[in-house]
Design brief:
Blueprint lengths: L2 E4 L2 E8 L10 E7 L2 E10 L2 E6 L24 E2 L6 E2 L6 E3 L9 E2 L1 E4 L2 E4 L5 E2 L8
Antiparallel strand pairs: 1-2, 2-11, 3-4, 3-12, 4-5, 5-9, 6-7, 7-8, 10-11
This protein binds FE2/S2 (inorganic) cluster.
Length: 133
């Protein structure tokens, strides 16, 4: 994952800005949490890119059955494909389904110079690169 500095923090390049269209397919990536690798994703909504752990607030399953498909058909809500929890794309708050009132775990995303970055903040860390991979 190429890196850049955002506010003095090491940001992880995710994708070119144009790869994320409003209400469209998301970009998946991986973060490290408590020495475990956990899936995450970024989507664009109302012009702004938002990032979350790819774990439903109901049962920690990935939201997208079809890779990168996080929005339901109207493009207004994120949806968990497993049991249908609906989330506000900008806050991650669950507004319908089995985990109503809970929320997705939000990640810090920055968009600069036509690129989208994840800025790791505790407790999330970049995935350590395997030395001999
Ligand atoms: S696992 Fe996502 S709604 Fe139940």
């Amino acid at each position: 994952m190429p890196e850049a500095s955002v506010d003095g923090m090491t940001a992880q390049f995710l994708c070119p800005a144009e790869a994320l269209i409003d209400g469209g397919t998301g970009v998946r990536f991986t973060v490290e949490l408590n020495a475990r690798q956990v899936g995450a994703f970024a989507v664009r909504f109302d012009g702004v890119v938002h990032g979350y752990l790819n774990q439903c607030a109901h049962v920690p399953m990935e939201l997208d059955w079809q890779e990168g498909r996080f929005f339901e058909s109207s493009g207004l809500y994120l949806i968990c494909a497993t049991h249908g929890a609906m989330y506000e794309p900008d806050s991650g708050q669950c507004v319908g389904g089995p985990c109503r009132g809970a929320a997705l775990a939000k990640l810090r995303i920055e968009e600069r110079d036509g690129k989208v970055f994840w800025v790791p903040e505790a407790p999330y860390r970049p995935v350590e690169q395997a030395v001999n991979a």
